[in-house]
Amino acid sequence: MQEFLNYGSDIVQKKQALFASFFVIQNRLQTAGEKVQKQISMRQWHLLAMTQICEKPRTLTKIGALMGCSRQNVKNLAAALEAKGFVKLVCGTNNSVQIEITEAAGAYLLSMRDRQNEVLTRLFSLFSEDDVNKFFDLQNKLLDGLESVENYAYECKGNYNYE
Questions:
Q1: How far does CA 118 lie from the centroid of its chain?
Q2: Helices 42-53 and 11-36 meet at what angle, rounded to 10?
Q3: What is the 3-state secondary structure (H, E, C) of the chain?
Q4: Per CATH, is 39-114 categorized as 1.10.10.10?
Q5: Would you state the pLDDT for residue 95?
Q6: CA distance 58 to 110
Q7: CA–CA separation, 73 vs 80, rounded Å?
Q8: Residues 11-22 as b or e (16 or more Cβ within 10 Å = b)
Q9: N or C: which end of the chain has fewer CB within 10 A?
């Protein structure tokens, strides 16, 4: 990651470096995470984690909103997890599809708890408690900025001819 630190000194270049690093971090986390636990992909793990914290009814749409992806992406991930016996897709009210986590998934997540804790320990080993709190606050600001970008993208969509 040293390349990003030497990217430039002006604020625009630093913003560009930060933006680029988000994708690098995501890719590296996914690659390393899938070596730590091999039974499911990191995207599938993310689905299980978001399903656990989602308020009931746990619909594809609600979980997609939590994950930052489409209902269709959630459905594809859930179908793969259903094939492994980790979730059940059930019909809900108004033709909604809901996800239920199975005992097999619960047992798997429990079996991986120590590894997941070790990942978090190592990932944040250079952070003080104050650093974690500051980073958490800054990430929330970034998420607010992302919402602004999403609104801008929606505005652009109306002004762009896709044909």
A1: 19
A2: 90
A3: CHHHHCCCCCHHHHHHHHHHHHHHHHHHHHHHHHHHCCCCCHHHHHHHHHHHHCCCCCEHHHHHHHHCCCHHHHHHHHHHHHHCCCEEEEECHHHCEEEEECHHHHHHHHHCHHHHHHHHHHHCCCCCHHHHHHHHHHHHHHHHHHHHHHHHHHHHHHHCCCC
A4: yes
A5: 86
A6: 21
A7: 11
A8: eeeeeebeeebe
A9: C
Kindly give the interhelix angle for 60-67 and 42-53, rounded to the nearest 10 degrees.
110
Which pLDDT tens digit goes with each residue over 122-139?
A: 999 999 999 999 999 999
Token pair belonging to 47: 């689905």
Q: Measuring CA to CA, which residue among 80, 94, 98, 71 is closest to residue 43?
A: 80
Amino acid letter, residue 44: Q
Give the residue-averaged pLDDT of 108-114: 94
pLDDT in tens, 11-59: 999 999 999 999 999 999 999 999 998 899 999 999 999 999 999 999 9
